Amino acid sequence: ACEAPLLLAAGQCRESCPDWQFETELDGQRICKACDSSCGKCFGTGTNCTACRKTAHILDDGVCKHWTDGCSEGKYANEDRLCVPCDPALGCKACNRQGTACTSCLEEKFFWKGVCSDACPLRTYPPAAGNKCLKCALDSCWTCEGSAKNCTSCEARKNLLLDENECVRSCPSRKYAVDGTCQRCDLSCKSCAGSAASCTSCAGEQVLDESSCVDGCPAGKFEVKGTCKPCHSSCATCSETAGSCTACAGELVLVENQCESSCPKGRFANGKVCELCHETCATCTG
Length: 286
What we know:
With 286 residues, the protein is an all-beta fold. The chain has strands spanning 7-9, 12-14, 21-26, 29-34, 39-42, 49-52, 57-60, 63-66, 75-77, 83-85, 92-95, 102-105, 110-112, 115-117, 124-125, 134-135, 141-144, 151-154, 161-163, 166-168, 175-178, 181-184, 189-192, 199-202, 207-209, 212-214, 221-224, 227-230, 235-238, 245-248, 253-255, 258-260, 267-270, 273-276. A two-stranded antiparallel ribbon has the order 1-2. Strands 3-4 form a two-stranded antiparallel ribbon. It is rod-shaped.
């Protein structure tokens, strides 16, 4: 037995226990007992290591284990071979040996390039199973969903438009751009702008009147390359050019392809059309 405050260690009285032993009591005597064989040092109990004996071991919550087994969840082994918590701001399940980047994430987080987030970043999407974000197939995809090739939005600063899950510089025929996406024009339109029914050219044999596709130009208009243009204000109808009247507006009468207030000398009014007098007449009527 040893006098207080000395401890009994391997038959000797000492002031403190050696590194591989810990202090305890037996029958009122302070004694030193051996730590677990994995411990270089321990405290309180033989299995509560405070340092590991082997250099290939790491210390994790009082337990020495081989470095290949890794630290418990949310920790990493520092240069002193101690398992310490990853940076809580990273939200890691596990992190690198510097504790600066995640190597895996907690179940409710998504992993991408060493960072755990509440959602996958731009140009990536969450997988059907697991929580590692996957890269969209095209760099032009701002977001994608379900698969790498299924774009759901395009990079706006590149002036790209979403068309059937692909990013394009301009909408194809029979589609128009709205809110960064290509939408289908009305069936009558060959092309449109602003809205589905606002045609800019027409399909088939129809012609464009204002923003509508019609079977033929209405009265007061004539066709030029598939588009209805307004006749001159004097014309009720015209053809080929705005001033080539085929009928006149109001009280005007048609002289050749012009609309006048009355028939000139050598012509007479036949309804609203000025006809030629007989060649022997200077003037004529009816």
